[in-house]
Amino acid sequence: MLEPDDDFDRRIRDWLQPDQQTVERVKARALSTQPRRQRIERILALSAVAGLLVALAGMWFWRPASTDFDVFTATFNGDVLVIRATDGTTWILGPESGNQPPAGTGQVVYQGDQR
What we know:
Layout (H helix, E strand, L loop, with lengths): L3 H13 L3 H12 L2 H28 L10 E6 L2 E6 L4 E4 L15 E2 L2 E2 L1
Antiparallel strand pairs: 1-2, 2-3, 4-5
């Protein structure tokens, strides 16, 4: 006597049982040497793409060093050198004149501060 579950079990087994063509196709693919070569080619291609991305990211984030210093302009007026900074400070350098005050009697002005 067949139980109602026996028919259900048989249908499930038939449904889960793979056909012979599928078994042969999976077996042939597993035993072939082609997947190994394809895997190596994929790894090489992925490595090349990753290297390219790293190089592009490096070029994207690389920037020349910023100029953290003041820009000076220097001009000659005869024998006198005039140096101007961006903050408005000016230095005037020239040849030594014959009427210099004695040593120790002059003032030194450094960026607007008297010392």
